[in-house]
Amino acid sequence: MRTGLKKINKSRRTFIGVFKRYGNKKNWHGFLEKTILLIDIKDSSGVILSDHIWFNMTDGFKKLGDLKEGDIIKFDARVKIYVKGYKGYRDDVQFEKPLERDYKLNNPSKIRLIKRGKNNNAKPRGLFP
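^ thats the sequence. predicted structure below, dont judge the formating
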């Protein structure tokens, strides 16, 4: 559980996170949607509230362009509670992934790139130098 976010549940705040990578998830219709992973989520005073958060690739994130690992993103979002775990009927899976409450950041806005990561000027590495 993200206990740092639990303390500020239902409030809208400014956060800072470090871009890690892009991902994909299936939506309700079975189509893939692009996602974005931010790590080391901090509040405005620099306290880490979560080790990671996945977001849908919203227009606000798209406007930042092609992000590289280490880029620092600042954004506003609301803390909300959600239920995670297996929601099906198989007892064996239900035991492995029980339902539990956790906290997420919802409706990101005012998304801006604060600083490019250190690796952004690095050349891609191949098999040979």
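The chain has a mean pLDDT of 87.
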